[in-house]
Amino acid sequence: MMGNEAKAKLFVISAPSGCGKGTLLNELSKRFDYYYSISCTTRKPREGEKDGVHYFFMTRKDFDKLADEDGFLEHAEFSGNCYGTPRKPVEDNIAAGRDVLLEIEPQGAFQVKAKRPDAVMLFILPPGVDSIARRLRRRALESGETEQQIQERLKTVVPDVRRAYEYDYVMVNGDLDKAVEDLVKIFTLAKEGGAGLEEFSAANMKETIDEVLKDA
User: Fold this and answer.
1) Are 116 and 93 in contact (CB under 8 A)?
2) pTM, 2 dp
3) Integer Cα distance of 31 and 50 in angstroms
């Protein structure tokens, strides 16, 4: 665990769908105490989803009101439903000395960075685009997703990976143990100012990003 001497940080983490980031973040939560940012949405809850746990479910009227009051760090509309990161829980936790982790796609991540330049931006790469397709198809056996839905997800992989060059840090989720070790190192040293993380800088990871895109 980190000591209280390190100032609380906002970590913004992006990765393509099917990259395995959920497993990594689960391992990270065993080692650090942080607030995991919960998004607001205007869509209806799905079976098993709980308000305040999976999302903050809101009416369109309340969502628009909060947006007008600059109450979101980022927000967007997809397929007729609105999604947004509420500003207050993030800023309240940071003010209280607790780190905040926000898992979000690149478009939203850079909206957050514009409002919170102090945010630590991390992109998690797959070892290759083909590994994403394999993982999504394995996951579809449990979730019941169709091949068309998988193809829709795959369409966003390359555009998302291209944004990795713009992040502060980039790492690869290939071998799980190594990826967990890298993520813990980034989280720990970024809290202390980032010294020692040069190997993960986007500039130094350029060839790795190039390699992933080459196979796309």
Assistant:
1) no
2) 0.87
3) 25
| Selection from 152, 156, 115, 125 nearest residue 13 by Cα | 125
d(CA 121, CA 110): 9
The torsion angles phi and psi of 146, rounded to 5 degrees, stand at: -85, 165
Bridge partners, residue 86, by sequence:
72
pLDDT > 70? residue 143: no
Q: What is the pLDDT of residues 63-101, one digit of tens each?
A: 999 999 999 999 999 878 999 999 999 999 999 999 999
Q: Is 127 helix (H, G, I), strand (E, B) or coil?
A: coil
| Domain boundaries along the sequence of the chain | 8-33+99-216, 38-97
3-class DSSP string for 40-89: EECCCCCCCCCECCCEEECCHHHHHHHHHCCCEEEEEEECCEEEEEEHHH
- In this prediction, residue 213 carries a pLDDT of 86
CATH class of 38-97: alpha beta
For 168, phi then psi, to 5°, come to: -70, -45
User: How are beta strands 72-78 and 81-86 bridged, if at all?
Assistant: antiparallel
The CATH fold of domain 8-33+99-216: Rossmann fold (3.40.50)
Q: pLDDT higher for 111 or 159?
A: 111
